[in-house]
Every structure is written in C-alpha cells, then in structure tokens.
Amino acid sequence: MADFEQEKLTYHLAELRKTILSIIICLLLLFPLGYFLAPYCIDWLISRSSFNQNFTLNFFSPMEVFLVNLKIGFVIAFIIGFPFTIYKIWQFLLPALYDKEKKFIKTAVFCSTFLFILGAAICVAFVLPLIIKFSMSFATDKIQPILGISNFLGLSGWLMLAFGLMFQFPIAIYFLVKFDIVSIEDLKNKRPYVVIVLLFTAALLTPPDVVSQLLLFVPTYLLFELGLLFAGFSKKK
C-alpha cells in the first residue's frame, strides 16, 4: 500500500513538473513577440494617459529602457500565453475532480479572467488618465514635472493589478456563500464593515489621492452587491 501511494505521488509530481515546464517553454517561445510589441504597448499606454497634453517620459540610466522593455515583453508573453497556461493547469487538475467541481472551476476561471481584464481595462481607460491629469495640475512656470518611464509603468502596472484583483470580489462572495462559509444575511448585516474594509484596501492599493481611491472603491462595492445577488440566486436554485 505504501509503495502504491509512493508511486502515485511520484506520478503526480512528474505530471506537475511537465505542466510547469510546458508553461515556461511557452512563455520563452512567446517572449520575442512580447519584446517586439513592448515599445508599441508603452507608446499606446503613454498616449492613452496623456489627455492630449504635452506628456513625455524620461529615463535616467543607460539600460533603463531596455530593462523596461524586457519586463513588458514578459508581461505581454504571459498575457498571450494565458489561455495555454490555464489549459495546462486545467489538464493537470482534471483527473482529480468530480463533474460538479469541474463545472464550477471552469465557470470560476472564466468569470475571474473576465473580471480581471475588465478591472485592468477600466483602470487604463479612466483611472490612469485622471491620475496623470491630476498630477500635471500641480505644474507651474517654476515647477515642471519630469516623469520617469520606470515610475510611470510601475504605477500603471500596480494600478491595473489592483483593479484586476479587487474586481475578483464577486467570485469571493459567491464562493463564500456557495460553500456555506458565511450566509448572505451575515454579509448584508455587515455592509458597514465591508465599506470600511473596501475603503481601507482602496487607500492601500492606490496613490494617496481621493479620486483614484473612490474610482477603485465604487465599482468594487457595486461588484460586492452583484456578488450577493448572484449568490442569493444560486442558493434559491
């Protein structure tokens, strides 16, 4: 019996190794394409955030732009290869799941991916331009902004990640209610605490200005209510 369990563990570890290796190989193969597209993506992000102002970025070390393009190239490669990554992970987990669990995870993965992309898109479309415009409003004849490319892309990436993660809220609510970890009534009664937690989290994840914090808080709270609605509908079924 012990030998059988050992063989089973060895087999699963070998399959996990194959899965991770295939994902890494996929990313490495896609990296040249990502590196090629990186400058175009950076230019698009800058033009999207400029609000038709004279908005340019600077670099402060000889290799800074090269390193930024490397990082953006890997991000683009990961985004392009994301469907393959999900497929390989799903293929690895499939044998251990029941039909009900397969259906739930498949739906959760799809919804989670959609909400993450939606959150990042809202950030790029509305939040980044507003933050850049807000920061530029402090410029005077004697005080002129000099923005670095690393700082700008770091801020952009962090905000897109924050919005993508906060938009996972309905999935978390649905999961908690679906598996009876908390009840809908408890969540409804604790709305004031949810508001405080969301405001605090939004303050941590965004720059220290009220505009960006509210832009993250408002849709997240609406998604919380949407999660309650779907969870309640699921319970009734």
Structural description of this entry:
This protein is mainly alpha-helical. It has nine helices and no strands. It has a domain at 2-130. 81% of the residues lie in helices and 0% in strands. The two termini are 43 Å apart. The chain is flat and about 70 Å long.
What key attributes describe this structure?
single chain; 237 residues; mainly alpha
Write the layout of secondary structure elements.
Blueprint: H1 2-49, H2 64-80, H3 82-93, H4 99-136, H5 149-166, H6 169-178, H7 184-189, H8 191-205, H9 210-236
Helix pairs in contact: 1-2, 1-3, 4-5, 6-9, 8-9
Task: Briefly characterize the structure.
With 237 residues, the protein is mainly α. It has 9 helices and no strands.
Described by the principal axes of the CA atoms, the overall outline is flat
Largest sheet: none
Strand content: under 5%
User: If you compute it from the alpha carbons, what radius of gyration comes out, rounded to the nearest whole angstrom?
Assistant: 22 Å
Which structural class fits the helix and strand makeup?
mainly alpha
Global mean pLDDT: 81
pLDDT < 50 stretches: none
Strand and helix order: HHHHHHHHH
List the total number of helices.
9
End-to-end Cα distance:
43 Å
Helix content: over 70%
User: How many distinct beta strands?
Assistant: 0
